[in-house]
Protein backbone atom coordinates (compact mmCIF):
# COMPACT_ATOMS: atom_id res chain seq x y z
CA UNK A 1 0.00 0.00 0.00
CA UNK A 2 1.72 3.14 -1.22
CA UNK A 3 1.79 6.60 0.29
CA UNK A 4 2.00 9.91 -1.55
CA UNK A 5 4.36 10.99 -4.35
CA UNK A 6 5.05 7.34 -5.10
CA UNK A 7 6.22 6.06 -8.48
CA UNK A 8 5.28 2.78 -10.12
CA UNK A 9 8.77 1.27 -9.69
CA UNK A 10 9.20 2.21 -6.00
CA UNK A 11 8.10 -1.24 -4.83
CA UNK A 12 9.78 -3.47 -7.41
CA UNK A 13 12.61 -4.44 -5.04
CA UNK A 14 10.13 -5.09 -2.23
CA UNK A 15 7.93 -7.26 -4.46
CA UNK A 16 11.00 -9.30 -5.39
CA UNK A 17 11.97 -9.82 -1.73
CA UNK A 18 8.41 -10.77 -0.78
CA UNK A 19 8.27 -13.29 -3.63
CA UNK A 20 11.54 -14.86 -2.42
CA UNK A 21 10.18 -15.43 1.07
CA UNK A 22 6.57 -16.18 0.16
CA UNK A 23 6.84 -18.09 -3.15
CA UNK A 24 3.12 -18.80 -3.43
CA UNK A 25 1.96 -15.31 -2.54
CA UNK A 26 -0.13 -13.16 -4.85
CA UNK A 27 1.41 -9.69 -4.65
CA UNK A 28 -0.79 -6.68 -5.36
CA UNK A 29 0.54 -3.12 -5.14
CA UNK A 30 -2.15 -0.50 -4.51
CA UNK A 31 -1.75 3.28 -4.83
CA UNK A 32 -4.62 4.73 -2.73
CA UNK A 33 -3.55 8.32 -3.46
CA UNK A 34 -2.55 7.80 -7.07
CA UNK A 35 0.89 7.56 -8.68
CA UNK A 36 3.41 10.27 -9.46
CA UNK A 37 4.65 8.34 -12.50
CA UNK A 38 4.34 10.34 -15.70
CA UNK A 39 3.56 13.55 -13.82
CA UNK A 40 5.29 16.68 -15.08
CA UNK A 41 7.03 18.96 -12.63
CA UNK A 42 4.42 21.65 -13.18
CA UNK A 43 1.64 19.23 -12.15
CA UNK A 44 3.55 17.62 -9.28
CA UNK A 45 2.85 20.46 -6.85
CA UNK A 46 -0.91 20.27 -7.46
CA UNK A 47 -0.77 16.48 -7.06
CA UNK A 48 1.05 16.80 -3.74
CA UNK A 49 -1.42 19.40 -2.47
CA UNK A 50 -4.35 17.14 -3.28
CA UNK A 51 -2.69 14.07 -1.78
CA UNK A 52 -1.82 15.87 1.46
CA UNK A 53 -5.45 16.92 1.87
CA UNK A 54 -6.56 13.32 1.34
CA UNK A 55 -4.03 12.02 3.86
CA UNK A 56 -5.15 14.65 6.38
CA UNK A 57 -8.71 13.39 6.07
CA UNK A 58 -7.69 9.74 6.47
CA UNK A 59 -5.60 10.53 9.56
CA UNK A 60 -8.42 12.28 11.40
CA UNK A 61 -11.61 10.62 10.20
CA UNK A 62 -12.85 7.05 10.08
CA UNK A 63 -12.87 4.96 6.89
CA UNK A 64 -13.10 7.22 3.84
CA UNK A 65 -14.56 6.24 0.49
CA UNK A 66 -10.95 5.71 -0.60
CA UNK A 67 -10.36 3.21 2.23
CA UNK A 68 -13.57 1.35 1.44
CA UNK A 69 -12.59 1.15 -2.22
CA UNK A 70 -9.19 -0.28 -1.28
CA UNK A 71 -10.82 -2.92 0.92
CA UNK A 72 -12.96 -3.97 -2.05
CA UNK A 73 -9.90 -4.17 -4.31
CA UNK A 74 -8.21 -6.40 -1.73
CA UNK A 75 -11.27 -8.65 -1.53
CA UNK A 76 -11.18 -9.11 -5.31
CA UNK A 77 -7.60 -10.37 -5.12
CA UNK A 78 -7.81 -12.60 -2.03
CA UNK A 79 -6.52 -16.09 -2.83
CA UNK A 80 -6.88 -17.54 0.65
CA UNK A 81 -8.96 -15.89 3.40
CA UNK A 82 -6.66 -17.54 5.93
CA UNK A 83 -3.56 -15.74 4.64
CA UNK A 84 -3.82 -11.99 4.14
CA UNK A 85 -0.93 -9.67 4.92
CA UNK A 86 -1.29 -5.93 4.26
CA UNK A 87 1.90 -3.86 4.18
CA UNK A 88 1.66 -0.08 3.94
CA UNK A 89 4.29 2.62 3.55
CA UNK A 90 3.83 6.11 4.97
CA UNK A 91 0.18 7.19 4.55
CA UNK A 92 -0.38 3.81 2.92
CA UNK A 93 0.04 2.33 6.39
CA UNK A 94 -3.01 4.27 7.57
CA UNK A 95 -5.05 2.96 4.64
CA UNK A 96 -3.74 -0.58 5.22
CA UNK A 97 -4.87 -0.52 8.87
CA UNK A 98 -8.30 0.93 8.14
CA UNK A 99 -8.84 -1.44 5.19
CA UNK A 100 -7.76 -4.40 7.30
CA UNK A 101 -10.20 -3.40 10.02
CA UNK A 102 -13.06 -3.28 7.50
CA UNK A 103 -12.11 -6.72 6.17
CA UNK A 104 -11.99 -8.12 9.71
CA UNK A 105 -15.20 -6.54 11.03
CA UNK A 106 -17.43 -6.50 7.95
CA UNK A 107 -16.19 -9.54 6.04
CA UNK A 108 -14.86 -11.66 8.93
CA UNK A 109 -11.33 -11.93 7.54
CA UNK A 110 -10.02 -13.14 10.87
CA UNK A 111 -6.48 -13.84 9.69
CA UNK A 112 -5.69 -10.43 8.19
CA UNK A 113 -2.44 -8.91 9.49
CA UNK A 114 -1.28 -5.32 8.96
CA UNK A 115 2.25 -3.87 8.92
CA UNK A 116 2.70 -0.09 8.65
CA UNK A 117 6.20 1.14 7.79
CA UNK A 118 7.29 4.75 8.31
CA UNK A 119 3.69 5.84 8.78
CA UNK A 120 2.27 8.84 10.61
CA UNK A 121 0.40 7.92 13.78
CA UNK A 122 -3.39 8.04 13.91
CA UNK A 123 -6.14 7.43 16.44
CA UNK A 124 -6.38 3.80 17.50
CA UNK A 125 -9.31 2.54 19.49
CA UNK A 126 -8.48 0.04 22.21
CA UNK A 127 -9.71 -3.00 20.30
CA UNK A 128 -8.47 -6.61 19.88
CA UNK A 129 -7.70 -6.00 16.18
CA UNK A 130 -4.64 -3.97 17.21
CA UNK A 131 -2.90 -7.22 18.18
CA UNK A 132 -2.69 -7.91 14.44
CA UNK A 133 -1.11 -4.50 13.76
CA UNK A 134 2.67 -3.99 13.62
CA UNK A 135 4.20 -0.53 13.39
CA UNK A 136 7.77 -0.33 12.04
CA UNK A 137 9.92 2.79 11.97
CA UNK A 138 13.62 3.61 11.67
CA UNK A 139 15.92 4.39 14.56
CA UNK A 140 17.06 7.56 12.79
CA UNK A 141 14.77 10.62 12.73
CA UNK A 142 11.90 10.48 10.25
CA UNK A 143 9.60 13.49 10.31
CA UNK A 144 6.65 11.51 9.01
CA UNK A 145 6.67 9.06 11.94
CA UNK A 146 6.56 12.05 14.31
CA UNK A 147 3.24 13.20 12.87
CA UNK A 148 0.08 12.38 14.80
CA UNK A 149 -0.67 10.28 17.86
CA UNK A 150 -2.43 7.05 18.77
CA UNK A 151 -4.79 9.19 20.86
CA UNK A 152 -7.99 10.74 19.54
CA UNK A 153 -7.24 14.24 18.14
CA UNK A 154 -7.61 16.85 20.87
CA UNK A 155 -7.78 14.25 23.65
CA UNK A 156 -5.23 13.48 26.35
CA UNK A 157 -6.85 10.15 27.07
CA UNK A 158 -4.80 7.17 25.97
CA UNK A 159 -6.64 4.73 23.72
CA UNK A 160 -5.07 1.91 21.73
CA UNK A 161 -1.61 1.02 20.54
CA UNK A 162 -0.10 -1.34 17.93
CA UNK A 163 0.38 -4.95 18.90
CA UNK A 164 4.07 -4.50 18.06
CA UNK A 165 6.03 -1.24 17.77
CA UNK A 166 9.45 -1.99 16.25
CA UNK A 167 12.44 0.17 15.34
CA UNK A 168 14.94 -1.06 12.77
CA UNK A 169 18.22 0.23 11.46
CA UNK A 170 18.06 1.64 7.93
CA UNK A 171 20.69 3.30 5.76
CA UNK A 172 22.01 6.16 7.94
CA UNK A 173 23.43 7.85 4.85
CA UNK A 174 19.89 8.75 3.77
CA UNK A 175 18.74 11.97 5.39
CA UNK A 176 15.42 13.78 5.62
CA UNK A 177 12.89 12.92 2.94
CA UNK A 178 15.35 10.51 1.33
CA UNK A 179 15.44 8.45 4.55
CA UNK A 180 11.65 8.24 4.64
CA UNK A 181 11.44 7.25 0.97
CA UNK A 182 14.07 4.50 1.17
CA UNK A 183 12.49 1.88 3.46
CA UNK A 184 11.39 -0.25 0.50
CA UNK A 185 14.43 0.44 -1.71
CA UNK A 186 17.64 -1.59 -1.95
CA UNK A 187 19.69 1.27 -0.48
CA UNK A 188 22.80 -0.76 0.43
CA UNK A 189 25.00 0.21 3.38
CA UNK A 190 27.53 -1.12 5.93
CA UNK A 191 27.02 -1.10 9.68
CA UNK A 192 29.76 -0.38 12.26
CA UNK A 193 30.96 -3.97 12.06
CA UNK A 194 31.26 -3.74 8.26
CA UNK A 195 28.31 -6.09 7.78
CA UNK A 196 26.50 -5.31 4.51
CA UNK A 197 22.82 -4.40 4.65
CA UNK A 198 20.03 -3.51 2.27
CA UNK A 199 17.02 -1.56 3.51
CA UNK A 200 14.43 -3.63 1.69
CA UNK A 201 16.08 -6.98 2.44
CA UNK A 202 16.28 -6.21 6.17
CA UNK A 203 12.71 -4.92 6.23
CA UNK A 204 11.09 -7.84 4.41
CA UNK A 205 13.22 -10.30 6.40
CA UNK A 206 11.85 -8.78 9.61
CA UNK A 207 8.26 -8.99 8.34
CA UNK A 208 8.85 -12.61 7.35
CA UNK A 209 10.29 -13.30 10.80
CA UNK A 210 7.11 -11.89 12.35
CA UNK A 211 4.76 -13.67 9.95
CA UNK A 212 6.37 -16.92 8.74
CA UNK A 213 2.96 -18.61 8.67
CA UNK A 214 2.10 -16.86 5.39
CA UNK A 215 4.87 -18.85 3.72
CA UNK A 216 2.89 -22.09 4.02
Query: SSE string, helix = H, strand = E?
Result: HHHEHEEEHEEH
- Which percent range fits the helix content? 25-40%
Mind describing the biggest β-sheet?
Answer: 4 strands, parallel
What is the rounded distance between the termini? 23 Å
Number of strands: 6
Low-confidence runs of at least 5 consecutive residues: none
Structural class: alpha/beta
The tally of helices reads 6
Query: Which word captures the global form?
Result: globular
Overall pLDDT metric: 92
Regarding quaternary structure, what we see is single chain
Beta content comes to 5-15%
Rg (C-alpha, Å): 17 Å
| Order of the strands making up the biggest sheet | 1-2-3-4
Name a few traits of the molecule.
216 residues; alpha/beta; four-stranded parallel sheet; two-stranded antiparallel ribbon; 6 helices; 6 strands; 35% helix; 13% strand
List the helices and strands and how they pair.
Elements lengths: L11 H10 L19 H20 L4 H13 L6 E6 L1 H15 L6 E6 L15 E6 L25 E5 L8 H5 L6 E3 L5 E3 H12 L6
Parallel strand pairs: 1-2, 2-3, 3-4
Antiparallel strand pairs: 5-6
Describe what this molecule looks like in 3D.
- The protein has 216 residues and is α/β, with parallel strands linked by helices.
- It has six helices and six strands; from the N terminus they run αααβαβββαββα.
- The protein has a four-stranded parallel β-sheet, with helices on both faces.
- Helix 4 links the parallel strand 1 (84-89) and strand 2 (112-117).
- Helix 1 (12-21) packs parallel to helix 6.
- The relative contact order is 0.14.
